[in-house]
Amino acid sequence: MNTKVLFVIATGLVLGTTKVSAQATDCATTASIAYEHAKVKNYASAEEPLWKVRKECPTYSVATYQFGEKLLKAKLKKAAAGEKKAIASEIITLKKERYQYFPAKTKLGVMHSDIGQLMFDNKMGTKDSQFAEFDKAYNEDKGNFKRPKKLYTYFSLFVDLHDEGKKELQGVFDLYDDITEKIENEESRLAKIIAGYTEKEESGTALSSKEKKKLKNAGINLTAFSKVKAGINQKLGERADCANLIPLYNGQFGAKKGDVSWLKGAAGRMSAKDCTDDPLFFKLVEALHKAEPSAKSAYYLGILALKDKKTTTGLKYFNQSAELETKANDKAKVYFRIGEVLKRQGNKGRARGYYRKALKYKPSMGTAYLRIASMIASSANGCGDDVFSKRAVYWLAENYARKAGKVDPSLRSTATKTAANYKAKAPSKTDIFNNPGITKVQIGCWIGETVRVPKL
């Protein structure tokens, strides 16, 4: 090979390297301009350089797709009705490009559910194609499919497809159970955060600005999940009433009576819908307990015992169920049921203990707080030494009622009214003035708690 040829090759290599280097520099410069504008939401200036990076340097940074999505969503929000579908389509394309170039930084549960929601909101494709995106998200990456609105849309589409004859009723029930459990787990997580910060405030410790923000966000998200759960229950509606459940399960019983999973689901749904008077419920429970004695079968045997007015036997079965139960939400429901039985018997102290156990496993169970508040308020006259301390019992009842509304937004209105009623019966500002130096009141009898004198 002569010197001239070698020179040409070497020159080509240098020029090629220089070209690649220049392109990399150009990508970095253009991206920097685009990102700086996008950070301050100056999307008009960000759009041209951002799309240039997207086209010429698609693998430069995932930020291109993150800012691009924010830009397009801002456009979508302001767009006229006739323009929305095209912009939504572009967002979907951008999401798919992100997954193509940055699969490790793209969550499938988020991507597919986002695409499904965009299609649903903007009437793109069929119900089947919209549902398919949500179904991919749920089955391939359930952990990252958790936005309340998207969970509702997914379930709503499934029910609509059932109504069109494309999905089985049993499938509707199965998805309902799964999504409800997911929502209740999120509610418990958020309620635990709220309860923790609320107790800190009630103890007289001020929250930091960061803690206040966390408390506020937890409340907002808890409200969203509460609304979605109510919406899902409404969507399920009459499809899960006894009139539909009994013939469905009667028809399936012969073939399914050895299927433990099916028996649990059928008995659970009939119990939840209070279809327990039908002979089918006894058949389901009997078959379930024979196939696999468990927390569920013990719980249902407890229900049947109570119907026969065998309270002691019923409580025995419920306690067995609680001990065997592994799911926190279900364990909480059993403890709450025991609390209800004890409350009806007038055993307030033991009832409160079981309500507290329920709250331990499901912090979002606001009804348990209301039950405790009710029992405390009803004991005001018997748990104080004088007029002031007797009326102070209502402050404690008020505190419990307010907690109910904080951990369960669906009870907020009821809890607020109940708390206001208790507050009206508690000592007034004049009563506090006439009892100087009292900052706390120790409440006796079965209550055995201390309540702080509020600053009125």
Tell me about this structure.
This protein has a two-stranded antiparallel ribbon with strand order 1-2. The protein has helices spanning 3-39, 43-56, 63-78, 81-101, 108-121, 127-140, 148-163, 169-202, 209-236, 242-256, 260-272, 279-291, 295-307, 311-324, 328-344, 348-361, 366-378, 387-407, 412-425, 429-433; strands at 440-443, 449-452. The protein is built from 20 helices and two strands. The radius of gyration is 30 Å and the shape is flat. Helix 6 (127-140) crosses helix 7 (148-163), helix 16 (348-361) runs antiparallel to helix 17 and helix 18 (387-407) runs antiparallel to helix 19. It is an all-alpha fold and 456 residues long. Among the domains are: 24-106, no CATH class; 126-237, no CATH class; 382-456.
Features:
mainly alpha, 456 residues, two-stranded antiparallel ribbon
How does the SSE layout of this entry go?
Layout: H1 3-39, H2 43-56, H3 63-78, H4 81-101, H5 108-121, H6 127-140, H7 148-163, H8 169-202, H9 209-236, H10 242-256, H11 260-272, H12 279-291, H13 295-307, H14 311-324, H15 328-344, H16 348-361, H17 366-378, H18 387-407, H19 412-425, H20 429-433, E1 440-443, E2 449-452
Antiparallel strand pairs: 1-2
